[in-house]
Design a protein that fits this description.
Oligomer: single chain
Number of helices: 16
Strand content: 5-15%
CATH class of the largest domain: Alpha Beta
Distance between the termini: 38 Å
Helix content: 25-40%
CATH superfamily of the largest domain: Crotonobetainyl-coa:carnitine coa-transferase, domain 1
Strand order of the largest sheet: 3-2-1-4-5-6
Number of strands: 11
Largest sheet: 6 strands, parallel
Number of domains: 2
Structural class: alpha/beta
Length: about 400
């Protein structure tokens, strides 16, 4: 039995915003030693994104940064400077894993790409996260969540057809890319241990979209010729209902793909007369051709009940359904409270804050939030003096040279 699953791993994060920090957070929360490198002056980009307490911007109180960087050691350096490069390479020499999400052109210009770094550490596993990957026609293009969602195909099936294309909210593509990088890195460890050679992992955010989410549409296209397209709150080519609808105090999602589920749903509603309308005889056609009329029938019943009441009725009658919860309702959810999902962490600047936990439970090697996200350069002395052997006088010299 070990204290944490990844307690023997040493990870260096040279990244910003979400994808690389989320990738290494998944490792840090399982016990890996993660050293996060930030630019000396402004730090990680996510420090400048909210939410902020009282909507007052403060780089040490960004909710996004605080969440993404628990359990990490934070240092500052500029790898474009001579001394900064020296420090960077010393860290790489001791690392198992390097996670990077800076543009490929910059990484290669600084000669910090995998080909260069494997000379410093032949066992290094390097995960590069970029919008479009290291090869192909878009490899040097800038890209953001909106762009990668479009190329990855998710924008083809979400939103209303009469509106402009959209992507999933809150930078979900960046989180998906970070998750894919973490999974691939764990698999690469097995290969590294067998061959004693490092590996370069190439993660394209657009490809993460196309496989994780859009890829599920390949089978219906091949077997039935179905093409996914934007249809608002309705899931086309699916038995009615499979959609989000309003109720007395918000919204609920109802999904009854099986006929027995649909009939149980009608039973719990008291078998309303409108269910005999011929539009319900073929429920896929109901969705594709008559959803507005069907929604009007169903919403009449839903608006008489709140979402928790509907959820309970559906649970008791084995009907797939779920309430659409607000952020406040999620934070105060009784189920999550029972599971001890949220954890409070005390931060020197932000104070005591409630953080989301993890969606899994390991009995022998549990994850935990043991340390708050680092303040800018908080662990410079610990890492440079304690791990790399420099003196406190060296730190002063580094600072004068604007390296740390």
């Amino acid at each position: 039995m070990v204290e944490h699953l990844l307690s023997e791993l040493r990870v260096v994060e040279w990244g910003t915003f979400i994808s690389a920090p989320f990738c290494t957070k998944l490792m840090a929360d399982l016990g890996a030693e993660v050293i996060k490198i930030e630019p000396p002056v402004n730090g990680d980009e996510s420090r400048h994104h909210g939410p902020f307490p009282g909507d007052i911007p403060n780089s040490e109180k960004s909710g996004l940064f605080l969440y993404l960087n628990t359990n990490k050691f934070g240092i500052t350096l500029d790898p474009a400077k001579t001394k900064g490069r020296e420090l960077f390479l010393k860290l790489i020499g001791k690392a198992d894993i390097l996670v990077v999400n800076y543009p490929t052109q910059l990484v290669r210009k600084l000669k910090l790409d995998f080909h260069s770094l494997k000379k410093e550490n032949p066992r290094l596993i390097m995960a590069s996260i970029t919008p479009y990957g290291q090869t192909g026609p878009y490899r040097n293009w800038k890209g953001y969540d909106l762009n990668t969602g479009a190329l990855g195909g998710i924008a083809a099936s979400i939103g209303y057809p009469e509106r402009e294309p959209i992507t999933c909210p809150l930078s979900q593509g960046d989180y998906q890319a970070g998750l894919c990088a973490a999974i691939a890195t764990m698999i690469a460890l097995f290969q590294r241990d067998k061959t004693n050679k490092g590996l370069h992992i190439d993660i394209s955010e657009a490809e993460c979209w196309s496989t994780f989410h859009t890829g599920v549409g390949i089978q219906p296209y091949l077997s039935e010729g179905r093409i996914r397209r934007r249809s608002g709150h309705v899931s086309l080519h699916r038995p009615y209902p499979d959609e989000v609808l309003p109720c007395k105090d918000g919204y609920v999602c109802i999904d009854t793909p099986q006929n027995r589920q649909w009939h149980r749903f009608l039973d719990l509603m008291g078998n309303p007369e409108w269910a005999n309308d011929p539009i319900f005889e073929k429920r896929i056609e109901t969705t594709d051709k008559h959803s507005d009329k069907a929604d009007a029938y169903l919403t009449g019943w839903l608006m008489k009940h709140d979402k928790e009441e509907i959820f309970k009725l559906c649970q008791d009658n084995k009907v797939p359904a779920a309430p659409i919860k607000t952020v406040a309702e999620v934070v105060n959810d009784k189920h999550l409270e029972t599971r001890n999902y949220f954890a409070e962490v005390d931060h020197p600047s932000a104070g005591k804050v409630k953080y989301p936990g993890v969606c899994y439970k390991f009995s022998l090697t549990p994850s935990s939030l043991q340390r708050h996200s680092p303040t800018l350069g908080e662990h410079n002395e610990k890492v440079y003096c304690g791990q790399l052997g420099y003196s406190e006088a060296d730190l002063v010299t580094f600072k004068r040279g604007e390296v740390i």
